[in-house]
């Protein structure tokens, strides 16, 4: 019995340490990544992390690769912001705040929005609340492994799949008809929104692997780059 309790305590301690590192307990909400080559000709980038925060997983790795190409980036720690349950309106305000921050950092007036996993779910749900005026700076939206359902809370319960979804994803994602959208999913992934998102402005990309895309940051960056370069070209016309 004592060994079982010790094992349980040790597991809890390790999990708590992991969440502390990821930012579950009031970690920094934004991480600014300035770039010397940033400027009016380039879009700034906002990246909403997955539900493990912006210190682990693909978000920091892809952000580093894009930053090395001269793009100013603001990553958003979804785990920090959504540790309490949020509303769609609060989600929209978070995205607006991150956009202003990124454009100031990048010395530009246009932006590309990228969401990873849980962050992709929150991205299209928040954008559904944007007015026409609020949409103006947005040149492209990239949804990376979005799910079929939405939960406006990131927590260990949500990660374990024990929380009831707040809504289906398609109704809000299908409203993104006003902007070029890239939807990226894994070939072996179950429960992805991308196959369902059959809109003329949506470019669907299938990468090897499941939800984690084989942890291949290089392949993911290559899938994202056309959306960013397209936004840059549109600005220069």
Please write out the topology:
Elements: H1 2-22, E1 30-33, E2 44-48, H2 58-67, E3 73-76, H3 78-81, H4 88-106, E4 111-116, H5 118-127, H6 132-135, E5 138-144, E6 149-150, H7 156-159, E7 167-168, H8 170-173, E8 181-186, E9 202-207, H9 217-236
Parallel strand pairs: 2-3, 2-4, 4-5, 5-8, 8-9
Antiparallel strand pairs: 1-3, 6-7
Description:
It is built from 9 helices and 9 strands. By secondary structure, it is of the alpha/beta class. Strands 1-3-2-4-5-8-9 form a 7-stranded mixed β-sheet, with helices on both faces. The chain has a two-stranded antiparallel ribbon with strand order 6-7. Helix 2 (58-67) packs across helix 9 (217-236) and helix 4 (88-106) crosses helix 5. The longest helix has 21 residues, at 2-22. It has one domain (28-236): Rossmann fold. Strand 2, helix 2 and strand 3 (73-76) form a beta-alpha-beta unit.
